[in-house]
Amino acid sequence: MHFANQSILPAVRQMKDMEKLLVSPFEYIVLLDVHIAQLKPIFQMVRPHNKKLLLHVDLIQGLQNDSYAAEYLCQEFTPYGLLSTKASVIIRAKQKGVVAIQRIFLIDNSSFEKSGALLEKTNPDYIEVLPSPMLPYLKEWKTGRDIPLLAGGFIRTEDDVNRALQAGAVAVTTSSQTLWKQYAAAGARR
């Protein structure tokens, strides 16, 4: 299961940007920084355009990021997937049959070890690694794991995208509108 060869996953923070992406070739969109009251209108706006939303549960204002929130989001909105740093959210997303993306921050050796233990517990569909320059360090760690990687954080240029893909990511998440435009012009596929 991959993101239909979509090299970048646009990460949206504002409604005006979501409106732009509705007419883009991107099939998958990550939704960040949204208030819970905005979810229903967003899903109503997105459905006719056949876009698949990935909700970053930790960044939904007015909703606690726990298994109950994940269950509510899955039942009420049926997103394509959920992203979170929380194990309970990832486990519930998998139970509900939506794509579960475990977001991990690799900042030192301790976080590296803790993330390994977390992934053993959650067994997500994807791992989003932040910051993206840490991706090459996972080659030694990923032995025995067959979980596709996404890269996020510090994705600013096409070279950043290419480095992440060469380091093993199947796609990158980015809020860079410059990259959205570049990849949309190329048909969102490379």
UniProtKB/TrEMBL annotation:
Signal peptide limits: none
GO biological process, any: positive regulation of DNA-templated transcription
Taxonomy, superkingdom: Bacteria
Pfam families, alphabetized: G3P_antiterm
Keyword Protease in annotation: no
Keywords: Glycerol metabolism, RNA-binding, Transcription, Transcription regulation
Listed GO MF terms: RNA binding; transcription antitermination factor activity, RNA binding
Biological role stated in the UniProt entry: Regulates expression of the glpD operon. In the presence of glycerol 3-phosphate (G3P) causes antitermination of transcription of glpD at the inverted repeat of the leader region to enhance its transcription. Binds and stabilizes glpD leader mRNA.
Name of the protein described by the UniProt record: Glycerol uptake operon antiterminator regulatory protein
Organism of origin: Paenibacillus dendritiformis C454
Lineage of producing organism: Bacteria, Bacillati, Bacillota, Bacilli, Bacillales
